[in-house]
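Hi W.,

Here's what went into the run:
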Amino acid sequence: MHQDDIKTAFVEILEQVASVNRTAVTEDHRLREDLGIDSLSLIDVAVAAEDTFGIRIPDEDLEGFQTVSDALGYIRHASVTA
Amino acid sequence: MLRFIRADLQRILSDALGGVGLHLGHRLTNLVDHGDTIGLEFANGRFAQADLVIGADGVRSVVRRFVTGGEDAVYSGTSAFRGIVPADQLPSLPNSQALQFWMGPNAHLLHYAIGGRGEAVNFFAAVEGPAVWPHADKWLTEVEPGEALTAFKGWHPAVTEMVSAVEHKVRWGLFSVRPLVTWHRGRALLLGDAAHAMLPHHGQGANTTIEDAVTLTELLVGASPSEFEAVAGRYEALRRARTRKIQRSSRVTNDLLHLPDGPTLAERDRRVSRFPEDFGWIHQFDALRSVSKADQVAGLAEFRSWTEKV
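Here's what came out:
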């Protein structure tokens, strides 16, 4: 999947699953503090990302998702190595 | 909230079957994929062929090995002791009839009264360790006399009385299943602990299993075998995130319950006092209602009514 497509798809997940306004999202936004995505909602995001991108996100790795950029970097890497 | 002794629940369920289709003494050893059916091999030499296999065979699920091809049970690094003690043998217990948690460094213990008149106290004590589980294939390991009490040395007499009132021969390793991305392969599908075994700290292992069963039943009713992929997809969509959240929450709760004495305790007490509020989402869930909405959203109901017309 092209890098921009990954970002578009991920932001759409944030909107659908965590009710985040897609136009307000930037890559340096922190998932919890800036976008209000608590640890449980983050699991909804992870499950949707696993299904959308065909990857697996172990819970230990999920703990490392501080910003949107962290998540995108993880998904890009996981998609390539999957 | 309904409370059952597990044996009573089993009897209610098996009575409802009326003995039809219940075959005990068959240990599943292998599954073979035949496309539209699955072949089952049992340790007693018997075979069976099924349109659908629902693997509710627990944390060491044989069906899961077929679905994922891997080893997905993960030792938590914690283990447990259990026991039942007559209430009158526990003089230091403030209230033998209460459901109560005792929390401390690297361990916690919970207990509640059982028996028609609350004459006995059932306890469950979770402790950190051993770091490595000593067995590949069983979740019980033998313990030395006094080993259980060591974890509670210096605790309130109510706890030390309770733990030492029972002769502990074993401890139970606590395992969970790492989150799976799919719960089915061919015509085999996972349910309950086989799909999402969790630490017991929310008391939701059996409950989520029953939710799985209710959800799957709603989706299967009226579905034909050729619709199985759609049914499995909807079932996973409805169950994966919720059970994963409860698994995660149970792990976080374990760490909270086992904090050492010190500055973190005030925060711990604050969070524990918020448990009813913070965990309402677990207990206020209606599995039956969740299916009806999703059915409409997925268009599965439409698809079904279309196939009925054809």
